[in-house]
Amino acid sequence: MNELEGFCVVLVEPQNPINLGTVIRAMKNMGMGRLRLVNPAAMDLDRTQISAHRTEDIVACMEVYGTLDEALSDMHVTYGFSARHRTRAWASLEMEDAVGRALGEIRDGLNVALVFGREQSGLTNDELARCQYRVHIRTSDYTSLNLAQAVLLASYSAFRQAGLGSMASQENYMKGTRPATQEEQTRLLKRIHETMIEVGFYKAATKSTAMHRVHNILTRASLHDDEVRLLLGMFSEVLNYARLVDRGVRPEKIRPVDEFLDGVRDDVER
Ligand code: SAH
After folding, report:
1. Measuring from atom 20 of ligand 1, which residue has the nearest CA?
2. pLDDT for residue 140 is more than 90
3. What is the pTM of this model?
4. Which of 90, 134, 139, 147 to mutate to test ligand 1, by most ligand atoms within 8 A of the CB atom?
5. What order of strands is seen across the sheet that includes strand 63-65?
6. Binding site membership of 122 for ligand 1 (Cβ less than 6 Å)
7. Residue 46 scores a pLDDT above 80
8. In the 3-class helix/strand/coil scheme, how is 178-216 assigned residue by residue?
9. Can you tell me the distance from the alpha carbon of 7 to that of 135, in angstroms, rounded to the nearest whole number?
């Protein structure tokens, strides 16, 4: 089971069906499934569905309570989200820290509630007092986020901190590969260095920082094993070419059929 399903999102007196729909949509996007409403305004659920396609599962198990106490009765830890700075001293957490903590609690099998207030007026002090922690999401001076956006930010943070999800396209591209080992990266660096010597890149026999910089570039690129092999192959060809030219042989060139360099070929050939 996706551990984010362990979170319970509690909305206190939500007023607007579109907001409710957007909250549900945000929960669905981030894999949260449990939603409780406390004394919601009478709502036309059909309007909710406008912004919450394919979220029938969340709607179907959504629970409605008369009071916040009832909604929180089986929860072990409760986080109350508030946009406003309060005069009373509360145990306050930044959203990212709160979510990280909550993930740990969920892994320990605890029931965790994320409590959000009304669109117009947020949570009352009494309601906030029912939560163990007050949670704040950093913003500009204009601190009041839209309800669904607050839920989205919290659930997105939970999603990322749980290490879930990946870029679909990236996943395909990286399929069957793994990050290159230190040894593979060193082999590539050596090959590049040898090649640069053979093609006369170094103009003087003094120390050069070029390879350190290449090393930095490769580190930033977080190469995978197949990418290291590709670059090793390319530099090997350059190396061989340079050695053959040294011996007076001009190797045959083959143009690949894909026209990757179409737009820039002139520059390359000049
Ligand atoms: N005007 C209200 C804000 C309501 S926004 C007020 O000033 O309190 C609806 C709910 O979204 C809030 O009750 C809170 O739970 C959440 N929220 C909005 N902005 C937030 C922020 N910056 N940090 C934490 N929660 C926030």
Report:
1. 83
2. yes
3. 0.69
4. 147
5. 63-65, 34-38, 7-12, 112-116, 77-81, 133-136, 92-94
6. yes
7. no
8. CECCHHHHHHHHHHHHHHHHHCCCCCCCCCCCHHHHHHH
9. 15
Domains of the chain plus CATH, in order, are 3-166 (3.40.1280.10), 173-269 (no CATH)
Residue 181 to residue 217: CA distance in whole angstroms:
16
Ligand 1 geometric centre to CA of 198 (Å): 64
Q: Ligand 1 pocket check: which of 13, 20, 81 to mutate, most ligand atoms within 8 Å of Cβ?
A: 81
Give the model confidence (pLDDT) of 66-119 as tens digits: 999 999 999 999 999 999 877 777 778 999 999 999 999 999 999 999 999 999
From CA 54, how far away is CA 77, in angstroms rounded? 30
Residue that has been written with the tokens 């409605």 in this structure: 64
Percent of the chain topping pLDDT 90: 70
Which tops the pLDDT comparison, 261 or 169?
261
Only one residue has tokens 């839209």, namely 146
- Rounded distance between C-alpha atoms, residue 188 and residue 106, angstroms: 44
Look-up of token digits 């922690």: 133
Cβ-contact 106, 6 below 8 angstroms: yes
The gap between the terminal CA atoms of the chain, to the nearest Å, is 58
10 CA from centroid of ligand 1 (Å): 13
Which tokens hold the place of 1? 């089971």
CA 265 to ligand 1 centroid distance, Å: 56
Distance in angstroms (rounded) separating the CA atoms of residues 181 and 187: 10
CA of 93 to the centre of ligand 1 (A): 14
